[in-house]
TrEMBL record, chains A, B:
This is Redox-sensing transcriptional repressor Rex. The gene is rex. Residues 89-190 form the CoA-binding domain. It is found in: Cytoplasm. Residues 219-257 are annotated as: Disordered. HAMAP family: Rex (MF_01131). GO terms for cellular component: cytoplasm. GO terms for biological process: negative regulation of DNA-templated transcription; response to redox state. Keywords: Cytoplasm, DNA-binding, NAD, Repressor, Transcription, Transcription regulation. PANTHER family: REDOX-SENSING TRANSCRIPTIONAL REPRESSOR REX, REDOX-SENSING TRANSCRIPTIONAL REPRESSOR REX 1. NAD(+) binds at residues 100-105.
DNA sequence: GAGTGTGAATCCTTTCACAGCT
DNA sequence: AGCTGTGAAAGGATTCACACTC
C-alpha cells in the first residue's frame, strides 16, 4: 500500500514487501538498543520479543534482505544494524523541512528521534510573518514565501506537513513543484500528488477512532457473559499505527481549531 | 494488528475486518464534509474519490456493515454518517487522558480533531510538579501522582501516552492497572500489556524511515545518469501526474500559488 | 543442541466482474 | 440506465514446520 507501488513488476527484484519495510525501523530500534548495551548477538526469538513481533515473521523479513544470520547462533547485532540502516537508506543524511510550525510542528522540530537516525531538520517554514526569525528547537523559522528557494538550496526531498488541513494541499503542491518527492502528512486531509511522489499520513483522530471501535466491542462482549476465561497472559502490542493508505493520505476536512 | 484478537469463536460475529475498520474513520470524515455542504447522497465512486480509496473497496467495506445504499442511486449521506459513527462507537462520548504534556502532549491537547468526534480530553497529566496547575488548551495539568484517581473518577478507558520513551512502560502499567483498556502510544517504545488491552502506536521516525527507503530507491533508479552525489543535491523532474488513487482519473493540480 | 532460512499451508485483503435492485 | 452488493479470483502477508547449518 502506501508508497511507491508502481514500478515493481519489471526490473530486478529488490523486491522487499511493504509490510517488511514497515517493520525494519522497528528491528533497527531494538538492535540499536542492544548495540548500546554491547550485546554482540541475538537470536530471532529474543529480537522478535524486543521488537514486539513473532520470530517466524522476523526471520522471514530478514530473509528478504539476505542471509545475515548464523545457524545455531543468531544474528550479529552490529552487522545487522548496518545492513538494515543501509537498506533503509539511513547511512546517508536526509535533509527534511517541516512546514507549519504550530504546536505540532514545534513538537516535531524538537523530536529527537529525527536527528538521531539519518534525518536532519534543514528548515522550519511557516506562513505567519510573526513567526519568521523566531527560533524553534534552535532553528529559525522561515517564511513560506521562500519555500521553493529553501527546498532547492538544501536539496530537500522529504517534507513534513503540519499545517491546518485547509493549507495542506497548497503546501503539498508547492513542495512537490519544488522537488520534494516524499511527504509525511499530519494534516487530516487527503493529499493529491503526482505519480512518483510518496505520501504517508499520520492521523491522530483516526487512531483514536479505531481504538474506540475495539473499546466499544469489549464493552459489548462483557455484557454477554462475564466468563471465567483466565485473563492476562502477556502479549505484545504491535499494531501498525497510521494506516498507511494509498499514495495519498486521508480525507477532506472538518478541521481542527 | 494490535488488538486483542480472537478470544472466543464469536457467537456474534460482528466480524468486520480490521482493514475495513481502519478505513471507516476515513469515510466518516469524507461524509462529514459532504454533510456540511448539505449534499444528500453520494455514489461509491464519488465517496471513494474523496476518501482516497477505490470504489470497489469502499463498497465491499460498506457491505460488512449492512446494505445501507440504494441501487441506482448511492448512499444517503446523513444515514451513513450515523451508521458509521455508531459502528465506531462514536455516538457515545469517550473521555481520554493525555499523559506527558511536553511539546507533543500540548499539541495533542490542542488538536481540535479529538473533541470534534466523540472524544473529550478529560485530563492532562504530567510528572513535572512545575507543570501542575498550568492550563494547556484550557485544561489544568495534573500531577501524575493522582493518575489512578483521575482515571477512576472520570471513568476513562482510553489513554494517550506522549511521554519520553523511558517513562512510557511505567505509565502504561499504571494506566492499565487503573482500568484503561485502550492506549494510543506516541513514545518510541514497544509496550507490553495484558491480554485484552489494545495498543496502537504512532511513531514519527518510523514513518520517516519508510519514506527514506522509498526515496532511496527512487534515487537508485534514476542512477542511470547524472550525479554521483548524495541525495542532497537532487534535481527532480519525474512526476508524471495522474495519481492512481482517484479511480476517475482526474489529474491533480501540480501548481502552487 | 540450537537456531536460521524457507517452501508450503493458511489467512486476510484487494480487485474483478456481474447479477440484481430501483 | 445506473449503481449497489457480493461471489469468485488474485495477490499479499503471516504462520507452520522442518531441512539444514554451525
Amino acid at each position: 500500500m502506501a508508497t511507491g507501488r508502481t514500478h515493481r513488476p519489471a526490473t530486478r527484484s529488490r523486491g522487499i514487501p511493504e509490510a517488511t519495510v514497515a517493520r525494519l525501523p522497528l528491528y533497527l530500534r531494538a538492535l540499536t538498543a542492544l548495540s548500546e548495551r554491547s550485546v554482540p548477538t541475538v537470536s530471532s526469538e529474543e529480537l522478535a520479543a524486543a521488537a514486539g513481533v513473532n520470530s517466524a515473521k522476523l526471520r522471514k523479513d530478514f530473509s528478504y534482505l539476505g542471509s545475515y544470520g548464523t545457524r545455531g547462533v543468531g544474528y550479529d547485532v552490529e552487522y545487522l544494524v548496518y545492513q538494515i540502516s543501509r537498506e533503509l537508506g539511513l547511512t546517508q543524511d536526509w535533509p527534511v523541512v517541516i512546514v507549519g510550525i504550530g504546536n505540532l510542528g514545534a513538537a516535531l522540530a524538537n523530536y529527537g528521534g529525527f536527528a538521531s537516525r539519518g534525518f536532519r531538520v534543514a528548515a522550519l517554514i511557516d506562513a505567519d510573518p510573526a513567526m519568521a526569525g523566531k527560533p524553534v528547537a534552535g532553528i529559525p523559522v522561515q517564511h513560506s514565501d521562500d519555500l521553493e528557494k529553501i527546498i532547492q538550496d538544501n536539496g530537500v526531498s522529504i517534507g513534513v506537513i503540519a499545517t491546518p488541513a485547509g493549507a495542506a494541499q497548497a503546501v503539498c503542491d508547492r513542495l512537490v513543484a519544488a522537488g520534494v518527492t516524499s511527504i509525511l502528512n499530519f494534516a487530516p486531509t487527503v493529499l493529491t500528488v503526482p505519480d512518483g511522489v510518496d505520501v504517508r499520513k499520520v492521523d491522530l483522530s483516526i487512531e483514536l477512532q479505531i481504538l474506540a471501535f475495539h473499546e466499544q466491542r469489549k464493552a459489548g462482549e462483557e455484557a454477554a457473559h462475564s466468563d471465567g476465561t483466565g485473563p492476562a497472559a502477556v502479549t505484545r502490542e504491535e499494531s501498525d499505527a497510521s494506516a498507511d493508505q494509498g499514495p495519498d493520505g486521508d480525507v477532506p476536512a472538518v478541521m481542527p481549531a
